[in-house]
Amino acid sequence: MRILVRRCWGPGLGHGAAGGRPTSQWRILARLRGSLGEEDGRDTRVREKPPWRVLFFGTDQFAQETLRALHAARENKEEELIEKLEVVTVPSPSPKGLPVKQYAVQSQLPVHEWPDVGSGEYDVGVVASFGRLLSETLILKFPYGILNVHPSCLPRWRGPAPIIHTVLHGDLITGVTIMQIRPKRFDVGPILKQETIPVPPKSTAMELEALLSRLGANMLISVLKNLPESLKNGKQQPAEGVTQAPKISVGTSCIKWEEQTSEQIFRLYRAIGNIIPLQTLWMENTIKLLDLVEVNNLVLADAKLTRQTLTPGSIIYHKQSKILLVYCKDGWIGVRSVMLKKTLTATDFYNGYLHPWYQKNSQVQPNHCKFKTLRLPTKKKPENKLLLCNSALSN
């Protein structure tokens, strides 16, 4: 696939923001001042050019692609871009660990588990999908500060789940921003590099993540090749166009049949369906919709759909295509399989719960055989919250 990439600003705009240059140099100047007075015996001299000593912070698949690029650069002895590379990641309940840890161990890179960051000397830190606020004390340990590979065109979609919100809101354009981290708040630092790509039609968050992870990794290497100049030319983020990309909770997966259009439901499915199945209520039981499909015009022309008065949540089994048709605010969505105690195909669900024989023998009223919006308890439960990092696709 060919991807059209363009810069979000032209040459010369890096100096345009008021106060942009002094702020973008803040980390370097603070470290330079500190290094003049340190007498603890460490080598605190600031390097003016590569090779750099890099400490990487990351967790998931998006971050793994960035780490892969850094490792490849370290292994490339001809270019001499990176001399030292170590990794910081977060604890994981999985015995194998998160993707970043798996790659680091496989590549024999030193790994530290947050909040341990090691005791070595580094020139610059790099963050991708880390999901933890870094203190000012930690940031100031790096002469060139800490860079963040963020998969959105900041200031749009600040926060831990930018790719999910890009898909969820139907954005046509997205991109990657390489920025310099500031303490206390996520994604507010100066922009060092930003490029955009069109969002492929009907792409899932996972598919979009793969595109943006490769773009971001290449952009980071480009910034590291000219790091002092990139920091010098950094520009402040505009005050306009700020949007937030908060974490996704299980409640996000509950379909609101009366409120959501078919397009909104499909966007929700493409955004989070691979990590949280969409949920609804069936006869007072939670049911998960596993495989959603768009309904073609031939199915929509079926007289069975056009001759009835339907309400949102109404279900019709379409025998020819073997899908469940569910009516929402403005039309239909198709469902190929569900999970109700166990995984059922649309045909299995029809035979077990929608067939006239079942309705007759169970004395269920036909108007009760519909999906209803699942209302989860308003009280927040820790186990129902997903800690999602930048790519928001962590396990």
TrEMBL record:
Record has Transit peptide as a keyword: yes
Major location (coarse): mitochondrion
The UniProt record lists the keyword Protein biosynthesis: yes
InterPro entries reported for this sequence: Fmt, Formyl_trans_C, Formyl_transf_N, Formyl_transf_N_sf, Formyl_transferase-like_C_sf, Met-tRNA-FMT_N
Family statement drawn from the similarity comment of this UniProt entry: Belongs to the Fmt family.
Protein name: Methionyl-tRNA formyltransferase, mitochondrial
GO cellular component: mitochondrion
EC number, UniProt record: 2.1.2.9
